[in-house]
């Protein structure tokens, strides 16, 4: 079966850091279920060949398992973990980073009328679907190139474009197509998300970010909530708390200083919101984090 070959390829080529010799291609191998942890999704196609994963975005929960894929069309703060993974049967996944410029180029090459319109409103930033046989076949052919270095430089870009075409024309195609449209609602919200991430320590007015995004306040708020499952202020809070947790892993004795560095003026408010998010006050969580490593890079969602 196709999934059997896909599992074998992923298991053989998995590395601790998820990277591969093919640009923008990631491989995940996880041998045990761990407690949910925070991370950023990146913009990615994530296909599971073995195991299952659960992701929380705001008040939404997404689950996907072998033979299913997840699309993350915006870099979002999530909490997630593999729910089925063991040394005997590790969770195995394939990831492909989605670049808006590549999506736009492919859309321009598609014959007129071959693609339905992307739609007016912004879709959710995450979506899950069953993988078609054509998509799985293309992923297998791409991973086979890891055993054929001579062919990699020429054939890998072609197969990556095929994979992108399969998802553009698949069930979640509207989400991916909006990623490549310069004036789509998703693109406007993605611009706001980047601004908030880059300036998460600063207070802001929603009206100002909406204006910067080229949308009315009501349309901005509605579309931001649709994409991220959060309000802009809640989104900023998620970023602040995730950054604080990463800082506490290396500065466990400076809880007040970490809170101020991520934008909190009140230590009590920082402690209260941190505990609500992670289930323990900052000092206690910092002690638990000591000796462990939390990653900040965009990884296989």
From TrEMBL:
Region (Disordered): 279-301
Family annotation (InterPro entries): Homeodomain-like_sf, HTH_AraC, HTH_AraC-typ_CS, Tscrpt_reg_HTH_AraC_N
Gene3D superfamilies the record matches: Homeodomain-like
One Pfam family named in its UniProt record: HTH_18
Domain of life: Bacteria
Keywords assigned by UniProt, alphabetized: DNA-binding, Transcription, Transcription regulation
Residue intervals of the HTH araC/xylS-type domain: 190-288
Single GO molecular function: DNA-binding transcription factor activity
Signal peptide start and end residues: none
Protein name from the UniProt record: AraC family transcriptional regulator
Species per Swiss-Prot/TrEMBL record: Acrocarpospora pleiomorpha
Lineage: Bacteria, Bacillati, Actinomycetota, Actinomycetes, Streptosporangiales
